[in-house]
Amino acid sequence: MQNNDPFALKTKAIPLNERHFDEMDGQGELHTQTDAVNRLIRNTYLLLSMTLLFSAFTAGLAMVFNIPHPGFLLTLVGMMGLFFLTAKLRNSVWGLAAVFALTGFMGMTLGPIINHYIQAFSNGHQLVMMAFGTTAVMFLGLSGYALTTRKDFSFLNGFLMVGLLVAIFGILAAWLFAIPALQLAISAVVVLLMAGFILYDTSNMVNGYETNYIMATVSLYVNIYNMFVNLLALFGLAGDN
Predict the structure, then answer these.
(1) Range among 11-20, 71-80, 206-215 rated most confident
(2) Is the pLDDT of residue 13 over 80?
(3) 210: pLDDT confidence band, cut at 50, 70 and 90?
(4) Which domain does 138 fall in, by range?
(5) pTM of the predicted structure, to 2 decimals
(6) 109 neighbors 63 (Cβ within 8 angstroms)
(7) Residue 8 pLDDT more than 80?
(8) In a domain, 230, yes or no
(9) Comparing C-alpha atoms, which of 1, 132, 116 is closest to residue 55?
(10) Is 79's pLDDT higher than 80?
(11) Is the pLDDT of residue 11 over 60?
(12) Crossing angle of the two packed helices 157-177 and 180-206, in degrees rounded to 10
């Protein structure tokens, strides 16, 4: 039987309209999240490029003026202090100044290390270029893989934290007792850890776990720095007769 009640038709139409608007809201929210992630990735890699160039500049200055290395403890204190300052200021414009201060300081500590390898080894320039090239290839490959596949590598968190603690104790032991074999092993472990951290930190950006481009930049920069330094140590120790 045909229903001539005009209100019945209106009542049936309401859920359809609600579902329609719900779908539109869901699509709009998805687009907003995607735009935010893309903007985060773009800003992070732009700032990372700038900090790497600035770090290379300060490293070059340290090499030209033959500035001595400040030492392990002073370097550690300076890096940690500037890191916590950057983290505190990450949501303000001063966070940009802090991140350049951090990466500039790390570049200054890198200059004497590069000078040491150039002066201590007959093929020092080749060692530096090998470490630089290997670091660039590994970073681009690992970060590119995480960006294109958009896999969630957050499951690596526990493994990486434990590995980092073991590496820190190993570094302290190698520094105190000056055991070349231990230094070689620790450098290899750190390179593998940094590869895992590159996947992990890039995945955090893609999947929305990291939303601040300053902290994302610092994380990736530290990964690159540590990978380069330990690859340089690996190549140097492996070639030391």
Answers:
(1) 206-215
(2) no
(3) very high
(4) 14-52+110-238
(5) 0.85
(6) no
(7) no
(8) yes
(9) 132
(10) yes
(11) no
(12) 150
| Torsion 162-204-105-193 (CA) sign | positive
Residue 188 located in a structural domain = yes
Question: SS3 letters for the chain?
Answer: CCCCCHHHHHHHHHHHHHHHHHHHHHHHHHHHHHHHHHHHHHHHHHHHHHHHHHHHHHHHHHHHCCCCCCCHHHHHHHHHHHHHHHHHCCCCCHHHHHHHHHHHHHHHHHHHHHHHHHHHCCCHHHHHHHHHHHHHHHHHHHHHHHHHHCCCCHHHHHHHHHHHHHHHHHHHHHHHHCCHHHHHHHHHHHHHHHHHHHHHHHHHHHCCCCCCHHHHHHHHHHHHHHHHHHHHHHHHHHCCC
Taking the mean position of all CA atoms in its chain, how far away is CA 43? 13
Under the banding of pLDDT at 50, 70 and 90, the label for residue 18 is: very low
Cβ proximity of 198 and 223 under 8 Å: yes
Query: What's the total number of domains in the chain?
Result: 1
Burial category of 109 from C-beta neighbours within 10 Å (exposed 0-12, middle 13-18, buried 19 and up): buried
Q: Are 77 and 195 in contact (CB under 8 A)?
A: no
With a cut of 60, say whether residue 219 has pLDDT above it.
Answer: yes
Query: Does 136 map to a domain?
Result: yes
Q: How many CB atoms lie within 10 A of CB 153?
A: 22
Give a yes or no: residue 48 inside a domain.
yes
* Residue 145: alpha-carbon gap to chain centroid: 14
Task: With cut-offs at 50, 70 and 90, classify the pLDDT of residue 14.
Answer: very low
| CA dist., res. 191 & res. 201, Å (int) | 15
